[in-house]
Amino acid sequence: MTGPACTDPRLAPPSGRGLDGAAEGGHRLRGTDSIRRMGLIERYIERLPFAATDPIVSLNEGSTPLIHAPRLSDRVGADVYLKYEGLNPTGSFKDRGMTCAVSAAVREGAEAVICASTGNTAAALAAYAARAGIRGVVLVPDGKIAAGKLAQALMHGAEVIALRGNFDEALRLVRQIADAHPIALVNSVNDFRIEGQKCAAFEIQEDLEGQLDALCIPVGNAGNITAYWKGFRELHAEDPSVSLPRMVGFQARGANPLVRGEAVAAPETVASAIRIGNPARWEEAMTAMTGSGGSVNDVTDEEILDAYRFLAREEGVFCEPASATSVAGLLKHGAGIEPGSDRQRIACVLTGHGLKDPQTAMDESTPVIPCEPSLAALEKVLIR
Ligand code: F0G
After folding, report:
1. Measuring from each residue's beta carbon to the nearest atom of ligand 1, which residues come in under 6 Å?
2. CATH (domain of 199)
3. The overall pTM is greater than 0.90
């Protein structure tokens, strides 16, 4: 497929050259196919439960950058990379699972999809339901989801139900509704979600040529760590020279059921995305961590916010607080590096974009500097 022909004279280059071709010696614009970001299912169709003839609901998700983090690497004494999932279409890794879950729901003839959510799944569901032209319904804990996520869910036309309860209660209710009524449940208890999200493991191993030593990842409902572990195992089964990284999970101190070994009745943390007390994929997450030689630990809200600011100010990467949990955990607990071993390669999953939660960003930053519109006033505030 080539791009549309340029017919608008205002867009024509000054020399009259077409957009597809350049005069001799000039810059040649590449065709759109070679640079366009392919959707996740299209990119990995051989590894996913879809056929080329299936209806695919996609927003060109996935293929997010793996960014080397030099300052973090110095602090940790390893090569640390950031898997920047905030660059997905709705700003979080949930789009990977949602393209699969909504495509499968449409294939099965569903006319409505539902989820419980701390915000990001709701935003992704809303966008993909809009794209599919089906009804989208989300249950979110009242007053506990970040502003950007709520704006997305509303803007995409989902029915947003603010539950006077927490995520765990919302998940229990949507499971009951989906059992009793013809509405497809697209939380990560839905296996299609795991299938989509496992593809992030493929991307990381492609970028690092199969040499990843450890993956640091925030754990909430435990779908994502389950998905990555599945992805890594599939690659390793096909080609044993591709490493099986240690899966190193981190939770917020106030929402740390996996660390405690028991459900937390009233989870609380600044990282609202992972404010979850009873993860649905509990057993699978534990299997991923123990089976890979990894571990699960927790970090305080203060440690999360320190890592959140550090990433923004020193690495230039803005993620939401829950995402910074992976880096906070790495800084506090490490990633199981043996002393004296070769320099390790570690990837931290930054699950969602910083713009999702503008309020926390403002709260954690210095205030803006007011200034009168004169040179003297500007000098007064700038020149020290
Ligand atoms: N990071 C972010 C930004 C999230 O939104 C979530 C989960 C996680 C990490 C944890 O991933 O649940 O697979 O262990 N958010 C869900 C939601 C619960 O509703 O958006 P997990």
Report:
1. 92, 94, 117-121, 188, 218-224, 273-274, 320, 322-323, 351-352
2. 3.40.50.1100
3. yes
